[in-house]
Recover the amino acids of this structure.
């Protein structure tokens, strides 16, 4: 798996975590098997007795859909920003002014 594929898979895993409740059962099943369980398109097609192309099309459309949700809701972007701020807090734990500034930034995300 290339670095680009790995980054996409990681992103899709996070997006799936954030937005799975907005997906149909079929969409959830396909994304979970493909991105979380590392099933191939052929394995998913065989599991659900559909064509490989049907699985590919569904995964692509569902991926586009969760990206659209992220564009509108920014749950993953805000999660990443909070993680960055928490890490920065750890690095500046003895600097009260810096911690206060970072807490302010966290509150602005809410």
């Amino acid at each position: 798996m290339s670095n680009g594929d790995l980054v996409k898979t990681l992103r899709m895993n996070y997006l799936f975590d954030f937005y799975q409740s907005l997906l149909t059962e079929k969409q959830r099943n396909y994304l979970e098997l493909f991105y979380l369980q590392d099933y191939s398109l052929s394995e998913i097609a065989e599991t659900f007795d559909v064509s490989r192309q049907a699985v590919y099309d569904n995964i692509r459309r569902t991926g586009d859909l969760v990206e659209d949700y992220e564009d509108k809701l920014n749950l993953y972007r805000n999660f990443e920003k909070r993680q960055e701020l928490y890490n920065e807090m750890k690095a500046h734990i003895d600097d009260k002014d810096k911690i206060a500034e970072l807490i302010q930034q966290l509150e602005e995300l809410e």
In short: The chain has six helices and no strands. The chain has two domains: 3-73, 77-109. The chain has a mean pLDDT of 93.
